[in-house]
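Before the break, one more example. Copy the sequence into your notebook; we will annotate it together after we see the structure.
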Amino acid sequence: MTSITAFQSDIETIHDEKVAKQKEALKLQQQQQLEAKLKHGAGGGKKSAAPSSPVKSKIELNPPPPLDDKEEDDIVADLQTLLSLPPSPLVTSSIKAHLAPLLLRAHGELIVSLGQRRNSSKRFHAEGALSIEEIGVVGEVLALEGGAEGEKGGEEILEIVQARLKEAVAEMGGEISVLVSSSSPSPHTTLLVRLVPTSIEQIIEVRVACTGNVDSAKSTTLGVLTRGGLDDGRGKARINLFRHKHELESGRTSSVGMEILGFSPTGQPVIPSSHTSAAATEEGDSGAFVPASGTSARREKLSWDEICKRSSKVLSFIDLAGHERYLKTTIFGMTGCAPDYCILMVGSNQGLVGMAKEHLAVALALSVPLIVVLSKIDMTPPQVLEATKKQLYKILKSPGCRKTPVYVESNEDCVELAQDFVKERLCPIFCISNVTGEGLPLLRSFLNLLPTSQGGDKYEVDAPLEYSISDVFSVPFVGTVVNGVLNSGTVKTGDVVMLGPDSLGHFVSTSVKSIQRKRAPVSSAEAGQSVSFALKRVRRAAVRKGMVILAKTDESPKAVRRFEGQILVLYHNTTIAPKYQAVLHVGSIRQTVRIVSMDNPKGILRTGDRATVVFEFVGAPEFLKEGMKLLFREGKTKGLGVVTKVGI
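Here is what the structure looks like once it is written out:
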């Protein structure tokens, strides 16, 4: 039997190897195409009248090469020296030149710490859960110790340096806001530097899936976060999140809902004006919420395009179902919508029970960073709340999770945790109440600082276009509209693309009539963004979830019916043999597959067994790539794995 921890490590290794191999092959192909074009141009003696090839446009769109850690350290050291020099136009220009690559790497957002932070102190919560002071996951970006202003006091130096930084950022078209400021034991402050986007295309996007058991306050919490008011204790805040009549009648989510929360350049939440003052009201660092009169949640909302116009950063919440009946919908939301983070809602009065454990397992299997929110703390007796915390600690520390739970209690915790909790295998835990508002400001602050995966290693902007379809619509006077995530490349209005595969595995040529991002029209989109396309001359019946849109090339893309994968059977009550069928989830693909063969000498698989298996799609061929993670389910049977070979 193979442990899930060891298998997950092997999955990540296989995934990284396959992706690296695909990148090398792409670079080689682009280089060969470029050399062939240059050779053809030189041999012809005159310029070709044909339009520029896709290779040239992609080279022009290439961003500057990313910084490695040593280069970033050198830039930070130089920036520290520049901020300590006497002010002058040359110094300000140099500060801007050093800030630019750091902001580019962070996609227009940067957290800067100035001064000396307080010393670490040991604190424990809920049977040994560590505090952020003990872990110390983030160091100072800029530690100022006098410099040219050595005769001045620490607070004066801090004010001078902060003013210089603010002046340079303002000239770059950005805003600075103070996240944490303290004078004890020594002056220090932490600032948020965020560029103001000039168009909706440049807005930072973070996708967050919201999971949890039935009645754990998932939809209520999202309603309170996005509307700004409080709940009345009877579900008033969740009304606007429901999409179907039966959801209103039962109070249960059955579909993949979507809500957005915008943050301004200064980090303030973009919510209806009647709730703005109340949402920003805090009491110290405790996260207590002081409600003003008339701040209960109303049927009041801003349109998505209005939120985008006022925001520099947008969080897309994927509201998933908690009932066992809709588990396949929840898994599709976790795989097809490509969330950057997963919020696991746990009702303090019920603990981690039912489908919450299933959702936790799915998030861990897909390696989606986890955030835990304990809701309903206003109505939970203290002893029950303490029991829930102990249970949560025990599960998170178990060998299957290997997470260190950290209870967020201050704004400083939010700042330090938001940047490095994924790398350090930490699990932030928030205790909130949607009725009293306790803990909500801390949760908003934390969400505001979450880094995006857009522009990183996960999404390649300079690779060929690849777009996975997770939803399809038929819009009057527009035609067929698809929604999904750009996995790689860039796309502009009017681009000719390939759509497929159909039931026979063929791809058809079409063009992108228009593009919308968060229901606002845009002219282009890039890898990592979730956008909608209106397709030209395509019938609604010809498009299904799981299809892809690819860049048009001379060689037609290939769909596969059979593929090979390494799998681990997490649970099965009997044995799995050839011809066994289950529902497979790979990205936005959800289809029944049949096991054709396996490398197990006994010819059967049981719980805990690992094997290399050949799968066959029962319905239509699909577009797969080596290294993609997969999940399969059938009743209570669960398994996970990775695609190792396609087209066999």
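Confidence is low (pLDDT under 50) at residues 43-65, 118-153, 277-298. The CA atoms of residues 109 and 194 lie 5 Å apart. Try to locate both features in your own notes.
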